[in-house]
Amino acid sequence: MEWREEAVVLGARRHGETSAIVEVLTRDHGRHAGLVRSGRSKRMRPVLQQGNIVEVTWRARLEEHLGSYTIEPVSLKSALVMDEPVRLAGLTTMTALCALLPEREPHPAIYDATKLIISNIENDDIWPALLVRWEAGLLDSLGFGIDLSCCAATGQTSDLVYVSPKSSRAVSAVAGEPYKARLLPLPAFLLGRGMASTSDIVDGFALTGYFLHRHLSAPRDIELPDSRERLIEYLKVK
Amino acid sequence: MSRRVTGTEIERMIQLLAKLPGLGPRSARRAALYLINNREKIMAPLASALGDAYEKVSVCSTCGNVDTLNPCTLCQDAARDQSIICVVEEAGDLWALERASATSGLYHVLGGTLSAIEGIRPQDLNIKGLIERADVDTVNEVIIAVNATIDGQTTAHYITEQLKSCNVKVSRLAHGVPVGGELDYLDEGTLAAAIKARRPF
Protein backbone atom coordinates (compact mmCIF):
# COMPACT_ATOMS: atom_id res chain seq x y z
CA MET A 1 0.00 0.00 0.00
CA GLU A 2 1.32 3.44 -0.82
CA TRP A 3 -0.07 6.92 -1.28
CA ARG A 4 1.40 10.37 -1.46
CA GLU A 5 -0.38 13.53 -0.39
CA GLU A 6 0.02 17.00 1.02
CA ALA A 7 -0.77 17.16 4.73
CA VAL A 8 -0.90 19.38 7.80
CA VAL A 9 1.09 18.14 10.80
CA LEU A 10 -1.19 17.74 13.83
CA GLY A 11 1.31 16.35 16.29
CA ALA A 12 4.18 13.98 16.89
CA ARG A 13 4.95 11.79 19.84
CA ARG A 14 8.20 10.00 20.43
CA HIS A 15 8.49 6.35 19.60
CA GLY A 16 11.62 4.73 20.90
CA GLU A 17 14.75 6.82 20.86
CA THR A 18 14.87 8.08 17.32
CA SER A 19 11.45 7.62 15.75
CA ALA A 20 8.15 9.44 16.10
CA ILE A 21 4.53 8.60 15.51
CA VAL A 22 3.22 11.51 13.54
CA GLU A 23 -0.39 12.43 13.04
CA VAL A 24 -1.29 14.47 9.99
CA LEU A 25 -4.46 15.77 8.38
CA THR A 26 -4.79 15.03 4.69
CA ARG A 27 -7.47 15.88 2.17
CA ASP A 28 -8.16 12.36 0.88
CA HIS A 29 -7.18 10.20 3.85
CA GLY A 30 -8.35 12.39 6.74
CA ARG A 31 -6.58 12.29 10.09
CA HIS A 32 -3.92 9.68 9.64
CA ALA A 33 -1.01 8.53 11.79
CA GLY A 34 2.20 6.86 10.73
CA LEU A 35 5.69 6.09 11.93
CA VAL A 36 8.47 8.46 10.92
CA ARG A 37 11.87 6.85 11.26
CA SER A 38 14.45 9.35 12.55
CA GLY A 39 11.50 11.59 13.36
CA ARG A 40 13.40 12.91 16.36
CA SER A 41 16.45 13.91 14.37
CA LYS A 42 17.69 17.50 14.19
CA ARG A 43 16.53 17.68 10.59
CA MET A 44 13.02 16.37 11.19
CA ARG A 45 12.10 18.05 14.48
CA PRO A 46 11.44 21.50 12.98
CA VAL A 47 9.41 19.89 10.20
CA LEU A 48 7.21 17.89 12.56
CA GLN A 49 5.84 20.88 14.44
CA GLN A 50 2.09 21.34 14.50
CA GLY A 51 0.68 23.45 11.70
CA ASN A 52 3.48 22.80 9.22
CA ILE A 53 2.44 21.77 5.73
CA VAL A 54 4.34 18.78 4.42
CA GLU A 55 4.18 16.18 1.71
CA VAL A 56 3.82 12.68 3.07
CA THR A 57 4.33 9.31 1.44
CA TRP A 58 2.65 6.56 3.42
CA ARG A 59 3.70 2.95 2.98
CA ALA A 60 2.39 -0.16 4.66
CA ARG A 61 1.93 -3.80 3.78
CA LEU A 62 -1.76 -3.76 4.66
CA GLU A 63 -4.31 -0.96 4.74
CA GLU A 64 -5.00 -1.40 8.47
CA HIS A 65 -1.32 -1.18 9.46
CA LEU A 66 0.09 1.92 11.10
CA GLY A 67 2.54 2.23 8.23
CA SER A 68 5.46 4.55 7.89
CA TYR A 69 5.74 8.05 6.50
CA THR A 70 8.41 9.70 4.47
CA ILE A 71 8.00 13.43 5.00
CA GLU A 72 9.18 16.38 2.95
CA PRO A 73 8.60 19.96 4.10
CA VAL A 74 6.36 22.19 1.96
CA SER A 75 5.56 25.26 4.09
CA LEU A 76 6.87 25.57 7.63
CA LYS A 77 4.76 28.23 9.29
CA SER A 78 4.92 27.03 12.88
CA ALA A 79 8.12 28.92 13.73
CA LEU A 80 6.41 32.15 12.66
CA VAL A 81 3.72 31.85 15.32
CA MET A 82 5.93 30.90 18.25
CA ASP A 83 6.43 34.49 19.35
CA GLU A 84 2.72 35.29 19.21
CA PRO A 85 0.69 33.78 22.06
CA VAL A 86 -2.67 34.45 20.41
CA ARG A 87 -1.70 32.84 17.10
CA LEU A 88 -0.06 30.00 18.96
CA ALA A 89 -3.23 29.40 20.97
CA GLY A 90 -5.28 29.51 17.74
CA LEU A 91 -3.02 27.03 15.98
CA THR A 92 -2.85 24.57 18.89
CA THR A 93 -6.62 24.81 19.39
CA MET A 94 -7.22 23.93 15.76
CA THR A 95 -4.75 21.04 15.67
CA ALA A 96 -6.05 19.68 18.99
CA LEU A 97 -9.68 19.86 17.83
CA CYS A 98 -8.72 17.84 14.75
CA ALA A 99 -8.41 14.92 17.18
CA LEU A 100 -12.21 14.92 17.28
CA LEU A 101 -12.25 13.77 13.65
CA PRO A 102 -12.42 10.02 13.18
CA GLU A 103 -9.16 8.50 11.98
CA ARG A 104 -8.74 7.78 8.28
CA GLU A 105 -12.08 9.36 7.31
CA PRO A 106 -11.63 12.06 4.68
CA HIS A 107 -13.08 15.50 5.40
CA PRO A 108 -11.86 17.59 2.47
CA ALA A 109 -13.72 20.73 3.56
CA ILE A 110 -12.01 20.65 6.96
CA TYR A 111 -8.63 20.09 5.34
CA ASP A 112 -9.14 23.04 2.97
CA ALA A 113 -10.30 25.26 5.84
CA THR A 114 -7.32 24.19 7.97
CA LYS A 115 -4.91 25.11 5.21
CA LEU A 116 -6.68 28.43 4.69
CA ILE A 117 -6.26 29.34 8.37
CA ILE A 118 -2.59 28.35 8.37
CA SER A 119 -1.92 30.42 5.28
CA ASN A 120 -3.60 33.42 6.97
CA ILE A 121 -2.20 32.88 10.46
CA GLU A 122 -0.11 36.05 10.23
CA ASN A 123 -3.16 38.16 9.47
CA ASP A 124 -4.85 38.79 12.82
CA ASP A 125 -7.85 40.49 11.19
CA ILE A 126 -8.79 37.30 9.40
CA TRP A 127 -7.81 34.08 11.13
CA PRO A 128 -9.86 34.32 14.38
CA ALA A 129 -13.09 34.64 12.39
CA LEU A 130 -11.94 31.84 10.10
CA LEU A 131 -11.30 29.66 13.14
CA VAL A 132 -14.88 30.20 14.38
CA ARG A 133 -16.12 29.20 10.93
CA TRP A 134 -13.71 26.24 10.99
CA GLU A 135 -15.24 25.03 14.27
CA ALA A 136 -18.74 25.42 12.79
CA GLY A 137 -17.50 23.45 9.77
CA LEU A 138 -16.09 20.75 12.06
CA LEU A 139 -19.50 20.36 13.70
CA ASP A 140 -21.10 20.23 10.26
CA SER A 141 -18.64 17.61 8.97
CA LEU A 142 -19.35 15.40 11.95
CA GLY A 143 -23.12 15.65 11.54
CA PHE A 144 -23.87 18.27 14.17
CA GLY A 145 -24.06 21.34 11.97
CA ILE A 146 -25.67 24.56 13.17
CA ASP A 147 -28.59 25.37 10.87
CA LEU A 148 -28.48 29.08 10.12
CA SER A 149 -30.71 28.97 7.04
CA CYS A 150 -33.92 30.25 8.67
CA CYS A 151 -35.60 30.91 12.00
CA ALA A 152 -36.56 27.70 13.83
CA ALA A 153 -39.78 29.33 15.06
CA THR A 154 -41.04 31.51 12.21
CA GLY A 155 -39.12 30.28 9.17
CA GLN A 156 -38.00 33.82 8.30
CA THR A 157 -34.56 34.16 6.77
CA SER A 158 -33.77 37.70 7.93
CA ASP A 159 -32.97 39.25 11.31
CA LEU A 160 -31.44 36.03 12.66
CA VAL A 161 -29.60 36.93 15.86
CA TYR A 162 -29.78 33.86 18.12
CA VAL A 163 -29.18 30.13 18.00
CA SER A 164 -31.27 27.72 20.01
CA PRO A 165 -29.05 25.51 22.23
CA LYS A 166 -31.71 22.78 21.97
CA SER A 167 -32.26 22.56 18.23
CA SER A 168 -28.95 24.05 16.96
CA ARG A 169 -31.06 26.25 14.67
CA ALA A 170 -31.10 30.00 14.18
CA VAL A 171 -33.80 32.11 15.83
CA SER A 172 -34.91 35.57 14.73
CA ALA A 173 -34.78 38.61 17.02
CA VAL A 174 -38.57 38.79 17.36
CA ALA A 175 -39.14 35.08 17.97
CA GLY A 176 -36.22 34.88 20.36
CA GLU A 177 -37.00 37.97 22.42
CA PRO A 178 -38.92 36.18 25.24
CA TYR A 179 -36.19 33.51 25.57
CA LYS A 180 -33.10 35.56 24.84
CA ALA A 181 -31.47 34.77 28.18
CA ARG A 182 -31.41 31.10 27.23
CA LEU A 183 -30.41 31.54 23.58
CA LEU A 184 -26.89 31.80 22.21
CA PRO A 185 -25.99 35.03 20.39
CA LEU A 186 -25.42 34.53 16.66
CA PRO A 187 -22.72 36.88 15.32
CA ALA A 188 -23.60 38.34 11.92
CA PHE A 189 -20.31 37.30 10.31
CA LEU A 190 -21.37 33.65 10.55
CA LEU A 191 -24.23 34.55 8.20
CA GLY A 192 -21.74 36.12 5.82
CA ARG A 193 -22.68 39.67 6.83
CA GLY A 194 -20.08 42.27 7.71
CA MET A 195 -16.67 42.15 9.36
CA ALA A 196 -16.22 40.33 12.63
CA SER A 197 -15.45 42.46 15.69
CA THR A 198 -13.65 40.99 18.69
CA SER A 199 -16.94 40.62 20.58
CA ASP A 200 -18.47 38.87 17.54
CA ILE A 201 -15.59 36.43 17.51
CA VAL A 202 -15.91 35.79 21.24
CA ASP A 203 -19.68 35.20 20.72
CA GLY A 204 -18.83 32.91 17.83
CA PHE A 205 -16.47 30.85 19.97
CA ALA A 206 -19.12 30.67 22.72
CA LEU A 207 -21.61 29.38 20.14
CA THR A 208 -19.37 26.75 18.57
CA GLY A 209 -17.87 25.87 21.96
CA TYR A 210 -21.31 25.06 23.35
CA PHE A 211 -22.04 22.58 20.57
CA LEU A 212 -18.50 21.18 20.43
CA HIS A 213 -18.79 20.37 24.10
CA ARG A 214 -22.33 19.00 23.87
CA HIS A 215 -21.94 16.85 20.78
CA LEU A 216 -18.27 15.97 20.59
CA SER A 217 -16.28 16.32 23.80
CA ALA A 218 -18.84 15.58 26.54
CA PRO A 219 -19.99 12.23 25.05
CA ARG A 220 -16.34 11.13 24.96
CA ASP A 221 -15.76 12.45 28.47
CA ILE A 222 -12.98 14.77 27.36
CA GLU A 223 -12.51 18.50 27.78
CA LEU A 224 -12.07 21.00 24.97
CA PRO A 225 -8.40 22.02 24.75
CA ASP A 226 -7.14 24.48 27.37
CA SER A 227 -5.60 26.55 24.60
CA ARG A 228 -9.12 27.38 23.37
CA GLU A 229 -9.94 28.99 26.72
CA ARG A 230 -6.66 30.89 26.60
CA LEU A 231 -7.34 32.02 23.04
CA ILE A 232 -10.71 33.47 24.06
CA GLU A 233 -9.13 35.20 27.06
CA TYR A 234 -6.38 36.68 24.85
CA LEU A 235 -8.99 37.93 22.39
CA LYS A 236 -11.07 39.50 25.16
CA VAL A 237 -8.04 41.38 26.51
CA LYS A 238 -7.11 42.49 23.01
CA MET B 1 13.09 -21.70 18.53
CA SER B 2 16.59 -20.68 19.65
CA ARG B 3 18.09 -22.59 22.54
CA ARG B 4 18.89 -20.73 25.71
CA VAL B 5 22.62 -20.35 26.27
CA THR B 6 22.59 -18.69 29.71
CA GLY B 7 20.76 -18.98 33.01
CA THR B 8 17.64 -16.96 33.82
CA GLU B 9 19.60 -14.42 35.92
CA ILE B 10 21.80 -13.42 33.00
CA GLU B 11 18.86 -13.43 30.57
CA ARG B 12 16.98 -11.14 32.94
CA MET B 13 19.99 -8.81 33.18
CA ILE B 14 20.21 -8.69 29.38
CA GLN B 15 16.50 -7.98 29.05
CA LEU B 16 16.74 -5.11 31.56
CA LEU B 17 19.87 -3.67 29.97
CA ALA B 18 18.13 -3.76 26.59
CA LYS B 19 15.52 -1.34 27.97
CA LEU B 20 18.16 1.36 28.50
CA PRO B 21 18.40 4.21 25.98
CA GLY B 22 20.93 3.46 23.25
CA LEU B 23 20.97 -0.27 23.91
CA GLY B 24 19.22 -2.91 21.87
CA PRO B 25 19.22 -6.68 22.53
CA ARG B 26 22.60 -7.19 20.87
CA SER B 27 24.39 -4.33 22.62
CA ALA B 28 22.71 -5.32 25.90
CA ARG B 29 24.19 -8.80 25.46
CA ARG B 30 27.64 -7.26 24.92
CA ALA B 31 27.25 -5.00 27.94
CA ALA B 32 26.14 -7.97 30.05
CA LEU B 33 29.13 -9.99 28.93
CA TYR B 34 31.43 -7.09 29.75
CA LEU B 35 29.93 -6.82 33.23
CA ILE B 36 30.29 -10.55 33.79
CA ASN B 37 33.91 -10.47 32.69
CA ASN B 38 34.58 -7.53 35.04
CA ARG B 39 32.55 -8.66 38.02
CA GLU B 40 34.69 -7.13 40.74
CA LYS B 41 35.91 -4.05 38.85
CA ILE B 42 32.61 -2.91 37.29
CA MET B 43 29.65 -5.12 38.12
CA ALA B 44 29.86 -4.99 41.92
CA PRO B 45 30.41 -1.21 42.19
CA LEU B 46 27.69 -0.64 39.55
CA ALA B 47 25.21 -2.80 41.46
CA SER B 48 26.09 -0.98 44.66
CA ALA B 49 25.80 2.44 42.97
CA LEU B 50 22.44 1.53 41.47
CA GLY B 51 21.22 0.32 44.85
CA ASP B 52 22.36 3.51 46.58
CA ALA B 53 20.82 5.70 43.91
CA TYR B 54 17.57 3.73 44.06
CA GLU B 55 17.41 4.25 47.81
CA LYS B 56 18.34 7.92 47.84
CA VAL B 57 17.21 9.60 44.60
CA SER B 58 14.21 11.87 44.94
CA VAL B 59 12.69 14.89 43.24
CA CYS B 60 13.81 18.18 44.80
CA SER B 61 10.89 19.73 46.63
CA THR B 62 12.13 23.22 45.67
CA CYS B 63 13.05 23.04 42.00
CA GLY B 64 11.92 19.62 40.73
CA ASN B 65 15.45 18.47 39.86
CA VAL B 66 16.42 14.86 40.62
CA ASP B 67 19.13 14.33 43.20
CA THR B 68 20.04 12.26 46.23
CA LEU B 69 19.65 15.37 48.39
CA ASN B 70 16.47 17.27 49.07
CA PRO B 71 16.71 20.26 48.50
CA CYS B 72 19.06 19.31 45.67
CA THR B 73 22.76 20.19 45.42
CA LEU B 74 22.03 23.17 43.18
CA CYS B 75 19.36 24.62 45.45
CA GLN B 76 21.66 24.25 48.45
CA ASP B 77 24.61 25.93 46.72
CA ALA B 78 24.86 29.38 48.33
CA ALA B 79 27.36 30.51 45.68
CA ARG B 80 24.67 30.43 42.98
CA ASP B 81 22.95 33.62 41.93
CA GLN B 82 19.73 33.57 43.95
CA SER B 83 18.19 36.37 41.87
CA ILE B 84 17.85 34.27 38.69
CA ILE B 85 15.63 31.26 38.11
CA CYS B 86 16.08 29.35 34.87
CA VAL B 87 12.96 27.38 33.92
CA VAL B 88 13.47 24.11 32.02
CA GLU B 89 11.18 21.33 30.85
CA GLU B 90 13.01 18.29 32.19
CA ALA B 91 15.94 17.50 34.49
CA GLY B 92 17.91 16.51 31.35
CA ASP B 93 17.64 20.11 30.11
CA LEU B 94 18.96 21.35 33.46
CA TRP B 95 21.93 19.02 33.17
CA ALA B 96 22.56 20.26 29.60
CA LEU B 97 22.60 23.90 30.75
CA GLU B 98 24.86 23.05 33.67
CA ARG B 99 27.21 21.19 31.32
CA ALA B 100 27.48 24.38 29.30
CA SER B 101 27.84 26.52 32.47
CA ALA B 102 25.26 28.69 30.78
CA THR B 103 23.84 30.26 33.91
CA SER B 104 24.91 30.57 37.51
CA GLY B 105 21.38 31.03 38.77
CA LEU B 106 18.89 28.58 40.24
CA TYR B 107 16.70 26.25 38.22
CA HIS B 108 13.10 25.19 38.09
CA VAL B 109 12.04 21.97 36.38
CA LEU B 110 8.49 22.02 35.01
CA GLY B 111 8.22 18.30 34.36
CA GLY B 112 7.00 18.69 30.77
CA THR B 113 5.10 21.15 28.62
CA LEU B 114 1.49 22.09 28.11
CA SER B 115 0.04 20.04 25.28
CA ALA B 116 -3.43 20.42 23.87
CA ILE B 117 -3.10 17.13 22.01
CA GLU B 118 -1.73 15.11 24.93
CA GLY B 119 -4.13 16.85 27.31
CA ILE B 120 -1.37 18.19 29.59
CA ARG B 121 -2.76 21.12 31.55
CA PRO B 122 -1.08 23.74 33.77
CA GLN B 123 -2.04 21.83 36.91
CA ASP B 124 -0.09 18.82 35.59
CA LEU B 125 3.14 20.83 35.60
CA ASN B 126 5.22 22.38 38.37
CA ILE B 127 4.10 25.94 37.48
CA LYS B 128 2.49 26.86 40.81
CA GLY B 129 5.80 26.20 42.58
CA LEU B 130 7.58 28.48 40.11
CA ILE B 131 5.17 31.37 40.72
CA GLU B 132 5.69 30.99 44.48
CA ARG B 133 9.47 31.00 44.06
CA ALA B 134 9.44 33.97 41.69
CA ASP B 135 7.23 35.98 44.01
CA VAL B 136 10.09 36.41 46.48
CA ASP B 137 11.95 39.73 46.73
CA THR B 138 15.37 38.19 46.08
CA VAL B 139 14.36 36.95 42.61
CA ASN B 140 14.86 39.51 39.82
CA GLU B 141 14.77 37.46 36.66
CA VAL B 142 13.14 34.33 35.32
CA ILE B 143 14.77 32.83 32.21
CA ILE B 144 12.38 30.57 30.33
CA ALA B 145 14.62 27.96 28.73
CA VAL B 146 12.06 25.64 27.17
CA ASN B 147 12.34 23.92 23.81
CA ALA B 148 11.61 25.87 20.63
CA THR B 149 8.60 23.73 19.86
CA ILE B 150 4.94 24.66 19.61
CA ASP B 151 4.23 23.06 23.00
CA GLY B 152 7.36 24.54 24.57
CA GLN B 153 6.53 28.05 23.44
CA THR B 154 2.88 27.68 24.45
CA THR B 155 4.16 26.84 27.93
CA ALA B 156 6.55 29.81 27.82
CA HIS B 157 3.72 32.24 27.00
CA TYR B 158 1.52 30.74 29.70
CA ILE B 159 4.26 31.10 32.31
CA THR B 160 4.95 34.67 31.19
CA GLU B 161 1.26 35.50 31.74
CA GLN B 162 1.32 33.91 35.19
CA LEU B 163 4.50 35.79 36.16
CA LYS B 164 2.96 39.18 35.40
CA SER B 165 1.81 39.42 39.01
CA CYS B 166 5.39 38.90 40.24
CA ASN B 167 7.86 41.73 40.09
CA VAL B 168 10.42 39.94 37.90
CA LYS B 169 12.01 40.39 34.51
CA VAL B 170 11.06 37.50 32.21
CA SER B 171 13.39 36.50 29.38
CA ARG B 172 13.61 33.56 27.03
CA LEU B 173 16.25 31.81 24.98
CA ALA B 174 17.05 33.22 21.54
CA HIS B 175 15.78 31.39 18.46
CA GLY B 176 17.86 31.27 15.33
CA VAL B 177 20.92 29.91 13.59
CA PRO B 178 22.75 27.26 15.66
CA VAL B 179 26.55 27.32 15.94
CA GLY B 180 27.90 25.51 12.89
CA GLY B 181 24.53 25.81 11.15
CA GLU B 182 24.53 26.48 7.41
CA LEU B 183 21.75 28.74 6.20
CA ASP B 184 21.16 26.57 3.16
CA TYR B 185 20.14 23.65 5.37
CA LEU B 186 17.95 25.53 7.84
CA ASP B 187 14.17 25.41 7.65
CA GLU B 188 12.42 28.63 6.68
CA GLY B 189 10.84 29.04 10.11
CA THR B 190 14.21 29.07 11.86
CA LEU B 191 15.59 31.48 9.26
CA ALA B 192 12.61 33.81 9.66
CA ALA B 193 12.98 33.69 13.46
CA ALA B 194 16.71 34.43 13.13
CA ILE B 195 16.09 37.45 10.89
CA LYS B 196 13.33 38.67 13.21
CA ALA B 197 15.63 38.43 16.26
CA ARG B 198 18.64 40.00 14.51
CA ARG B 199 20.76 42.41 16.54
CA PRO B 200 23.34 45.13 15.84
CA PHE B 201 26.81 43.78 15.01
Tell me about this structure.
The complex is a heterodimer of chains A (238) and B (201). Chain A is α+β, with helices and mostly antiparallel strands. In chain A, 34% of the residues lie in helices and 22% in strands. Chain A folds into two domains: 2-79, Beta Barrel (OB fold (Dihydrolipoamide Acetyltransferase, E2P)), CATH 2.40.50; 81-148 and 186-236, no CATH class. Chain B is an alpha/beta fold. Chain B is built from eight helices and six strands, in the order H-H-H-E-E-H-E-H-E-H-E-H-E-H. In chain B, the strands form two sheets. A four-stranded parallel beta sheet of chain B has the order 4-3-5-6. In chain B, strands 1-2 form a two-stranded antiparallel ribbon. In chain B, strand 5 (141-144), helix 7 (150-162) and strand 6 (169-172) form a beta-alpha-beta unit. Chain B is globular. Chain B starts with 7 loop residues before the first helix and ends in a 5-residue tail after the last helix. The mean pLDDT of chain B is 92. At the A-B interface, strand 1, helix 1, helix 2 and helix 7 of A face helix 7 and helix 8 of B.
